[in-house]
Amino acid sequence: MKKYLISIISLFVILTPVSAVEWGGLLDNTSQLIYMNNDKAPESSPLSFAQSDAVYLWTSAPLAPDGSIYIKGEGMYKFSYASGTVTHIADLDLLKCAGTIQMGKSTLDFSAGRFSLSDISGAVFSQNCDGAYVNYTSPGIGFSAYAGYTGLLNSNVVYILGKGGIKHIPGNKVYALSNPYIPVSASVSFPYLFLNQSLTLQGNGFIDLSENKYNRIYGALSLSGAVAPVVFYNFVTDFGSDFETSLMNYTKLNFSIFAGTSLITTGIEYASGNHAFFSPFKGFSTHTAYSSGNGDAELSGLILATLEANSPIGENMLIASNLKGVFACPEKEITPAGLQIDFSYLYNIFSDLQLTALVSDFISFNKNYTDKLSATLKVALSF
User: Fold this and answer.
1) pTM for the whole thing?
2) Over 80: is that where the pLDDT of 377 sits?
């Protein structure tokens, strides 16, 4: 790992003029108070406290005179305290060479190195990864492809789901190498195919290089567009297989409404359980559907009905609220599990100082779930 980082950093130094380098950083302080009404363990304290402090450093520099090709990197160190446990994490979040090449009315975008990537559903693959990505767009059609490797990632930061949806959780290390997979992806898109509607087809595959050989494939379809001047929708369905169980499915339908400067979004999500001809849905990257006293729940065997609203207040403040009804469907029956309520307030005190307050409450409707109330205060200073 050290040789890999040294080689990349050395290449950055050789290729980049010192005068063109930009850099900066961010100091992050996050404090959280948690209350859980846990009837299953009444002897434990219902209150707990969590604290994290992090520093992020970034740098970027152009490789082309017009800035169309550039190198950018970001690293972080994080200290965390929760439930009496102290952890230290160091990571290289971003280190890529990227650029855009104009070819008449068409555009070719490319990235190589470590960067963040997401599939069109956002439920299968959404994380940092080492690899290469190309995206070709023209007025009538677009193509994209990606190939990467996960074995050099820090598994303290990027969780990969294994068999049964179990996360790969490393030991107490600052940097622990992740499970080795080769993720591959390819997509074709048709912008404004008909009546200003856009269609995207995407395939994702994950080749397990470990002895487990837990390979997975997914195929997704996305359709999006406007249904009125201020109302837009996005529909996506994703079918997958791990070659060991039957077909799994994730489907989402969202409607977004622009009301002045505010945005209202409502929708429904379905992640298959063990019913009909489906098996429980499992993505590749971990994805938290909701957070109760039982822990963060993965997106599997669930139906989620959501209502979100975001509204700026003046130029420096933003309020956001999220209401999410959670219905469990691990087997044939559908049962109400609870209600997730989130409210956040963001205030840009100065251009480089930001304050965020978040209140989150999970109200259980079922004895199998535990209530959870949390209040989080986050202060970020950029330099």
Assistant:
1) 0.89
2) yes
